Amino acid sequence: MADAKIVIIGAGASGIAAATRLLENGFENIIILEAENRIGGRINSVPLDGGFVDIGGQWVHGEKGNIVYEMVKDLDLVTPSSLPKDPGMSFFLSDGSMADKTITDRLFAIIMAVKDDKDTAGKFLGSFAQYITIEYKKRVLNEFGANARILELSEMVLKWFQKFMVLLNPAETWDQLSTTSHYVFQPCEGDQLLGWRKSGYRTIIDVMTKRIPDPSKQLPLEDKILLNKEVSQIIWDADDETHDVLVNCTDGSAYPAHHVIVTVSVGVLKDIYATCFEPPLPEYKINSIEGVPLGTVNKILLKFPTKWWPDTMKDISFLWSEEDRNALLDEVSAGPIVNGKSWLENLFSFIAIDSHPNVLLGWVNGPTAKLVELLPDETVIESTMYMLRKFAGRLYHIPEPDVIVRSKWGSNPHFKGSYAYVNAQMEKTKASANDLAQPLMKNSRPVVQFAGEATHSTLFSTVNGAMETGYREAERIISLYK
């Protein structure tokens, strides 16, 4: 088995998982080709203020059945988040006041209960957006009656919730979701916001390679990773006694292999499949690549000279009145506008993060997410500070931030987006993660295999899902040689 040549394309969570499992089982002839100048893929922990912040994967989502948690739970590497576990957010109104938290906590609890009510949703014949809207309004009326102020507040919470759903399922609008597609994802039970104590999510790479907890047992992976290696072609019917597949790179280098494990994002696959694979891919594989969507969500982290928000407040979530929403473009014209709406409407919350007490983390998603990546830092700072001061500036003195850190997943040609999700269109085309994961076979042997979070049928969008797929493809090779 040591003679089997294996090329892994991508040094993200799934690629490193595959490589470490193969090394542990005696496969030594391994090369990882990584297009970026770093490893980690969509794990990207960057230095900030003496520590690290994550502009990619950030939390360990769940405990039971979560392979990441199982690997680190006894190593004192993760800690429960201090974010409130009770239903509710700190909702600020666009007139600068804070909404009545007793009421908004209840509205939030109602809409989350509607979201999680799989049985009621399954009987609804319309879209997911229609289901949420109708069922939520019905439950609000049942509880609060025709109280005009509460009904107005409930509409604001509903519009905020639309953007929250597009964070969980990074479509451009929540109209692209169906009542069945939303429930395909199966979260692991337990704390959904376990944070890393010291060095961010990149710590899991050291755990996989066994550098943690004992550096003397570290797997010899570093010398097998080649950075700045962008693949241009995968010839998977090579007629050569020494190899089954030939991987060509844009720098002119070539790597023969018996097995290739492709771990690039489905967004990259969409971009390259027509020209990269020789012979062309089978139709079912093309259908899955074209049909499995990859959305874009980006992070904006602002570090302030002092912590200006109280310890009891873990988030600042924005509720717009219609009047203020309509006036937004007159007040802030900088940045992309889509369908007559400013990108700032897709900036829906900032939260405090445990590792950095002076840092707020915000998300931008929806149809403007990729466009915001093209803005200079100065414009993003000016616009986000407008939001924070408009909504919270009456209650708090908000200084200018010292540092801004941003992700730009959509415009990076080696990712083309943040993470996969399931939408209504997939149901029509019958595209699936399972088809995306099927290997290309030659003489009844897998010669090109596919891993990565988008190839996991129930844990897509997660690091633990990505790692599981890397282990899955490594085991496919291991079982073949047994």
Key structural traits:
2 domains, 482 residues, six-stranded mixed beta sheet, FAD/NAD-bd_sf, polyamine oxidase activity, Amine oxidase domain-containing protein, Flavin_monoamine_oxidase, Amino_oxidase, single chain, Polyamine Oxidase, Chain A, domain 2, alpha/beta
Q: What would you say this structure looks like, in words?
A:
It comes from Rhynchophorus ferrugineus (Red palm weevil). One of its GO terms (molecular function) is polyamine oxidase activity. Residues 14-478 form the Amine oxidase domain. InterPro entries: Amino_oxidase, FAD/NAD-bd_sf, Flavin_monoamine_oxidase. This is Amine oxidase domain-containing protein. With 482 residues, the protein is of the alpha/beta class. The chain folds into two domains: 6-43 and 65-78 and 200-294 and 419-481, FAD/NAD(P)-binding domain (3-Layer(bba) Sandwich); 91-188 and 298-406, Alpha-Beta Complex (Polyamine Oxidase, Chain A, domain 2), CATH 3.90.660.10. Helices cover 34% and strands 19% of the residues. It has 15 helices and 24 strands. It has a six-stranded mixed β-sheet with strand order 8-2-1-12-24-23, with helices on one face. A six-stranded mixed β-sheet has the order 6-16-19-20-15-21, with helices on both faces. Strand 23 (440-442) and strand 24 form a beta hairpin. Helix 1 runs parallel beside helix 15. The N and C termini lie close together (9 Å). The model has no long low-confidence stretch (mean pLDDT 94).
